[in-house]
Amino acid sequence: MSLPSSTTTTTNNLAADLKPKGEAAAKAKPCCVCKDEKAARDECMLFSNAADPQADCQNMIQKYKTCMQGYGFSLP
After folding, report:
1. For residue 67, what are the domain limits?
2. So which residues are the signal peptide here (predicted)?
3. What is the count of structural domains for the chain?
4. Residue 68, Cβ neighbours under 10 Å: how many?
5. What is the pTM for the complete model shown?
6. Would you say residue 73 lies in a domain?
7. Positions of E strands within the chain
8. Is 67 annotated among the ligand-binding residues?
9. What tens digit of pLDDT does each residue of 25-56 get?
10. Are residues 53 and 44 in contact, defined by beta-carbon separation less than 8 angstroms?
11. Is 34 annotated as a binding residue?
12. Over the stretch 7-17, which tens digit does the pLDDT of each residue have?
């Protein structure tokens, strides 16, 4: 009984051609920056006992927006 011949596989990453090159590759994704600021903002908003959590957490919201602007992201 003979074993089926195995095909040679390459170790190249086939998805590498899909990744952006140059400046686009260096730009950070919004989900990957300002994680601490986002967590603090979310925690404040979720657990605020104030009638208006957005007003109560304005300081945390502003810190998150400032951090995101530092990476080139504009938030409303």
Report:
1. 38-76
2. none
3. 1
4. 17
5. 0.65
6. yes
7. none
8. no
9. 568 899 999 999 999 999 999 999 999 999 99
10. yes
11. no
12. 545 555 555 55
